[in-house]
Every structure is written in structure tokens, then in C-alpha cells.
């Protein structure tokens, strides 16, 4: 493993145990996040992006359960394993090592506390800061994320702010303990295009200042193309293509990545177009097709093979692609 890996996910499986059967929302994800990089996770809605991200901080509620796999965080004081971590370690890791922001800021902001008191609490929980010092930090952070008049806004309640300002406040809170990794799950999806661009710029600035890594989850390839160093394409709970963003975008190898990009022909000009029609629909995860789960929708399907053989990860350039087309043993079988 290269020395610059911050977070390593191996064969992660998170299922929802329902009466009618298991929903395999995450079904064997392998990924790495390097220090300081932006990794974009892309894929159509329902492919398991959010459940995967929430699994990292163990924020999946029952009947969701992590069934297996390993999540290793490489901290300054050595590696820690998060799947088996106790509550004490998890509390320490949340905010200080890994912070998370969501599409809907109200999911992480309390309605009944001021923005400032919530940041103060986060700072004091993790660092030996006095009240006055923590409040100064809160005002600094609000200023840093571009909230005007931070001395006043620090005492505002979330409902007193606009959607874009609330998103900024949530980012300020997430950064209060200077995490090494920020997980942002569709952070700009609910915002208008102008505010979206501002928030993406803000994240890029903060990343440079703080040297933090960002895992950016988005269904929007245009957003990913704008900011990502690396890219992981997810389909039905698995990563099907993973590697340097520029390679994945300029010469996609997995038929699913190719279809995603075709659905968005002019990257750059149509930078914020939503992903649209790919042949067929994402099947529900309890009806996961056998073999390669993408085969019913795939234009390049190998008859008699893709329906039955689960593709391995094979290296292609600097990428990993899970597709029989690139697996010589299979193609020659
Ligand atoms: N609480 C839940 N109970 C049952 N199924 C769930 C629950 N949460 C998510 N899922 C299922 O897990 C799959 C992955 O969901 P999600 O990670 O939210 O997808 P994405 O973020 O890629 O849009 C979906 O099929 C979804 O229906
Ligand atoms: Mg999601």
C-alpha cells in the first residue's frame, strides 16, 4: 500500500435486513482515499453511494448492518480499524479525523441551537478550548466559509439562514476540528447553480488551506469532472471503475462508465446536466442480476459469460475495472 493512503475500504458489505430478504445496498466495495486528494464517487441514484459513505462513520441505522469488510483509517499515530471500532474510538474519529456533510444541512444542524453554539460544542468536545476561545474559532470559521457578518450570524438559528448559508454553516461545523477527511454527500444538489459553484470553490479553497482529503459523492458527472483527482464509479453496491479522474473521464473503460458519459456528451459546456437515460433502469438491489449486475443494460455483453461470471477487478492503465471485457482469462475462456 502506498504511504499516502489515508482511508482504505476493503470488501465492504452493508445490507438492509428486511422481512422479504436482504437489500445488498453495498456489496463488496474496495476503495482508497489518498491524503489531500478529492475522490469523487459517482453513479445513478440508488447505487449505494450514501450507504457506503455512512458506513465509514457507522451512521447506518437498523435494519442496515455492516456484514463484512474492513475500513482502515491511517492516522498520524498509526492505523485504526473502523468496522470493529468501539464507541469511544468512533467518537474520537468523528469530527476530528473524518467529518461529514449532507445534501440537507438540517440533517446535521440542530433546529433549537444557534449556529455558534453548535460549532462551540463540536470544538470543545474534541479540544481543550475554553468557551471564549471556542466562540472565537466559531466566528473565524463562519468568516472562512464566507458567511457575512459572522459576529452576528454566530448567534443565528439555522432557520434564519438561506439554504446556501446553511450549507456554509454546516461546512464550518464539519471543519471545526480540522479533519483529515471531509465526506460530502451531494453537498450542492439542493442548491441553485450559482450557489453550487460557490460552495464547490469554497471546498477547493479550504482543501488547499487545510490539506484535507475530500470524498465527494455526486450523481452529477459535471461536478465530479470539475473537482476530482480520482474517481470511483459505483453500480449496484460495487465499484465498477476506479482510477485517476482524467483517465476515467477521457477514456472510460467500463460499459457503465461509458454509458454514463454518453448520457452527458459535452462535459464542460453542459457541466451541470443531470445524468440521464441509460438503457433500462437500475434494478432494485434485492433483485441484483447474477454475474455482472450491469449485464442486462450492457451494450457489450458477452453472451453466456456476463450472466454467470462475477467480474474480477483487473488493472487497466492506472485504473481498476471490473468487467470481463478486460479480463484476458475470461475473454479467451
Ligand atoms: N433504510 C433503508 N432501508 C432499506 N433500504 C435502504 C435504506 N436506505 C437505503 N436503502 C437502499 O439501499 C440502496 C442504496 O441507497 P443509497 O446509498 O441511498 O443510494 P445512492 O446514495 O447511491 O443514491 C437503495 O436501493 C436504497 O433503496
Ligand atoms: Mg445518496
Describe this structure in words.
With 333 residues, the protein is an alpha/beta fold. The chain contains eleven helices and twelve strands. The radius of gyration is 20 Å and the shape is elongated. The model has no long low-confidence stretch (mean pLDDT 89). Adenosine-5'-diphosphate binds next to strand 2 and helix 1.
End-to-end separation in angstroms reads 31 Å
- Please state the average pLDDT score: 89
Which molecules are bound besides the chains? adenosine-5'-diphosphate, magnesium ion
Report helical residue fraction. 25-40%
Protein structure class: alpha/beta
- Strand content is 25-35%
Quick one: how many beta strands? Answer: 12
Shape: elongated
The ordered string of helix (H) and strand (E) elements is EEEHEEHEHHHHEHEHEEHHEEH
Indicate the low-confidence ranges by residue numbers. Answer: none
CATH fold name of the largest domain: Rossmann fold
State the CATH superfamily name of the largest domain. P-loop containing nucleotide triphosphate hydrolases
Radius of gyration: 20 Å
Largest sheet: 8 strands, mixed
Figure out the total of helices.
Answer: 11
Within the largest sheet, what's the order of strands?
A: 6-7-8-3-9-10-12-11
Give the total of domains. Answer: 2
Given this structure, which CATH class of the largest domain is correct? Alpha Beta
CATH architecture of the largest domain: 3-Layer(aba) Sandwich
Amino acid at each position: 500500500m502506498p504511504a499516502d493512503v489515508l482511508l482504505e475500504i476493503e470488501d465492504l458489505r452493508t445490507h438492509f435486513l428486511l422481512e422479504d430478504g436482504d437489500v445488498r445496498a453495498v456489496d463488496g466495495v474496495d476503495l482508497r482515499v489518498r491524503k489531500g486528494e478529492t475522490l469523487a464517487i459517482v453513479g445513478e441514484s440508488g447505487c449505494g453511494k450514501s450507504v457506503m459513505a455512512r458506513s465509514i462513520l457507522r451512521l447506518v441505522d437498523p435494519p442496515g448492518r455492516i456484514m463484512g469488510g474492513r475500513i482502515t483509517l491511517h492516522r498520524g499515530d498509526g492505523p485504526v480499524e473502523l468496522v470493529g471500532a468501539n464507541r469511544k474510538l468512533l467518537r474520537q474519529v468523528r469530527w476530528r479525523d473524518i467529518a461529514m456533510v449532507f445534501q440537507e444541512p438540517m440533517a446535521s444542524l440542530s433546529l433549537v441551537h444557534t449556529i455558534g453554539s453548535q460549532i462551540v460544542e463540536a470544538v470543545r468536545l474534541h479540544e481543550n478550548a475554553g468557551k471564549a476561545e471556542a466562540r472565537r474559532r466559531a466566528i473565524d470559521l463562519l468568516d472562512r466559509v464566507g458567511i457575512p457578518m459572522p459576529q452576528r450570524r454566530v448567534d443565528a438559528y439555522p432557520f434564519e439562514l438561506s439554504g446556501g448559508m446553511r450549507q456554509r454553516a454546516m461546512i464550518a461545523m464539519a471543519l471545526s476540528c480540522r479533519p483529515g477527511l471531509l465526506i460530502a454527500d451531494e453537498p450542492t444538489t439542493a442548491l441553485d447553480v450559482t450557489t453550487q459553484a460557490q460552495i464547490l470553490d469554497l471546498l477547493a479553497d479550504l482543501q488547499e488551506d487545510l490539506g484535507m482529503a475530500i470524498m465527494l459523492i455526486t450523481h452529477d458527472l459535471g461536478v465530479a469532472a470539475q473537482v476530482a483527482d480520482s474517481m470511483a464509479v459505483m453500480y449496484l453496491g460495487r465499484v465498477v471503475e476506479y482510477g485517476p479522474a482524467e483517465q476515467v473521464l477521457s477514456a472510460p473503460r467500463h460499459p457503465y462508465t461509458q454509458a454514463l458519459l454518453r448520457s452527458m456528451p459535452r462535459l464542460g459546456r453542459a457541466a451541470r446536466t443531470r445524468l440521464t437515460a441509460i438503457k433500462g433502469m437500475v434494478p432494485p438491489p434485492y433483485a441484483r442480476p447474477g454475474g455482472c449486475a450491469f449485464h442486462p443494460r450492457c451494450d457489450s455483453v458477452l453472451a453466456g459469460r456476463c450472466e454467470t461470471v462475477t467480474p474480477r477487478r483487473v488493472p487497466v492503465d492506472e485504473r481498476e475495472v471490473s468487467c470481463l471485457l478486460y479480463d484476458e482469462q475470461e475473454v479467451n475462456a
